[in-house]
Design goal:
Layout: E1 5-8, H1 13-24, E2 29-33, H2 41-47, E3 55-58, E4 61-64, H3 66-76, H4 88-110, H5 113-120, H6 124-138, H7 147-164, H8 178-193, H9 205-216, E5 222-224, H10 227-236, E6 258-263, E7 271-278, E8 282-289, E9 293-300, E10 304-308
Parallel strand pairs: 1-2, 2-5, 4-9
Antiparallel strand pairs: 1-3, 3-4, 6-7, 6-10, 7-8, 8-9
Helix pairs in contact: 1-3, 1-8, 2-10, 4-7, 4-8, 5-6
The structure holds glutathione.
Length: about 300
């Protein structure tokens, strides 16, 4: 098996979610560091437009969004499972809440002026300003949460998580599942990246103890790869066969059509290509890039907008 390649940067909470899933599944991986803000020409050579972090690459297959990346890693290495048979619907629903509502609340709380000053440290106020402008442009359907509202909501959510952890080590039982990884990463950002804001966690010691258990999972072993090598690998590889028999058409868009896919709440940058598969859970676009060659770019259905592409 070729090692999965993760395109990410160390401070990214969603990347921390995937790094821990790789650790949980003991999968060795290769690590490509990408910029925190646009432009990201090397990442876009692979994705064709998608700019969010992280992205997973297997040869010429490019997987966008951590919900899909978790499914792909589960397929690569089924044990230990992220989706225990009993309660897997609950695990996915809780993960979706955690990746959206909980995440946005934790970021609105953590990225206070004090938190931002710590995060950018010596990089200074200009870097912080560029980061703020970059992220504001990404928010198409997520209103900014004001600091007082974020603080109150965050404290409530932490109490709810603490309540779920009473009498068990992880959110839905004795073992972690996808919901634990999804709930963890926003809190990790508060605790580790903006530790000046971390006293909000002190009121829920059960959550802190669970965070220690999650951190102990670790990141498995990784080796650094540079972006040019990852792109060259895509160019030398052939995308995996797609499951066109499992076509589920919910849009009246036939396989073979030119389409675009973009995020429906954050990250409006579209990826365009030929729709080569649309299964119950995900879409696959084929596109050809001057540097990366022919690649398949995959997106989950949930959270993304599929449209027929405008005629050129
Ligand atoms: N739903 C996406 C969200 C990913 C996301 O918003 N990631 C943040 C970083 S943690 C991001 O992309 N920020 C902008 C960037 O890195 O360019 C996922 O699950 O992968």
């Amino acid at each position: 098996m070729t090692e999965p390649i993760l395109h990410h940067y160390p401070k990214s909470p969603f990347a921390e979610k995937v790094r821990l899933v790789l650790g949980y599944k003991k999968l060795a991986w290769q690590s490509v560091h990408i910029p925190m803000v646009m432009p990201k020409p090397d990442l876009l050579a692979l994705t064709g437009g998608y700019r969010k972090t992280p992205v997973l690459q297997l040869g010429a297959d490019i997987y966008c969004d951590t919900a899909l990346i978790c499914d792909v890693l589960e397929h690569l290495q089924p044990e230990p499972t992220l989706y225990p048979a009993r309660g897997k619907g609950m695990a996915r629903v809780l993960a979706q809440w955690a990746d959206t509502t909980l995440f946005w609340t934790s970021m609105a709380y953590s990225l206070s002026p004090k938190g931002v000053a710590q995060m950018f440290g010596t990089a200074g106020p200009d870097a912080a300003k560029a980061f703020g402008a970059d992220r504001a442009a990404m928010r198409v359907a997520t209103p900014r949460i004001r600091p007082g509202d974020a603080a109150g909501a965050y404290k409530s959510y932490l109490r709810r998580l603490a309540n779920m952890l009473e009498g068990q080590d992880f959110l839905l039982g004795a073992q972690p599942c996808v919901a634990d990884f999804a709930a963890y990463h926003g809190l990790w950002f508060t605790r580790v990246q903006t530790s000046v804001m971390a006293d909000v966690l002190d009121a829920t010691p059960g959550v802190l103890a669970w965070m220690d258990r999650m951190a102990a999972i670790g990141h498995a072993s990784s080796t650094r790869l540079d972006a040019d090598a990852a792109i060259a690998l895509a160019a030398q590889s052939t995308p995996l066969p797609v499951d066109d028999a499992a076509f589920q058409d919910d849009h009246g868009i036939a396989l073979g059509s030119r389409v675009s896919i973009s995020g429906n709440d954050v990250g409006p940058e579209p990826t365009e290509g030929e729709l080569v598969a649309a299964t119950r859970m995900h879409y696959t676009l084929r596109r050809t890039d001057a540097r990366a060659g022919t690649v398949h770019v995959h997106f989950p259905r949930i959270g993304y907008v599929l449209r027929a592409a405008e005629p050129a």
